[in-house]
Amino acid sequence: MPILSFIYPPTGLSGGTARLLGSGFGASAGEHGQVTFHDGKVATVLSWSNFSIVVTVPADATTGNVGMVMADGSTFSNVLPYAISGAYMPPVLEVPAGGLKFTDGSTTTTGTTPAP
Which of 63, 68, 3 is CA-nearest to residue 31? Predict the structure, then answer.
């Protein structure tokens, strides 16, 4: 039976990543079920080993327990608490109407946003 020891970070963003550490996970994703967040939200696996699993926190995940479940939904591991602190937002670069100006001291480059 898989044993979850830690989840890092213990608080994070929906859509972000979380690492579960423990033992008995199996050599590959799905060998011992899947990772689920509170309310049965299934996480997307980014990497998996017998001692470490990295997942994407489901976009609609809420604060609650994280654990591993079998395909039939039965619990297959202990659970750990995980708190959602907000939604992951990828960085966005907003270009002012006049474009951007970059300089390295000897060369200046100006760029603009391509038309939609």
Answer: 68
Instruction: Look up residue 70 and give its two tokens.
Output: 């079998």
In a domain, 40, yes or no: yes
| pTM score over 0.85 | no
For residue 14 the two structure tokens come to 């929906």
| pLDDT score at 24 | 84
Q: Distance (Å, rounded) from C-alpha 45 to C-alpha 73?
A: 17
Bond prior to 9 in cis (omega within 30° of 0) = yes
- Domain tally for the chain? 1
CATH number, domain containing residue 48: 2.60.40.10
Residue carrying the six token digits 């080993």: 49
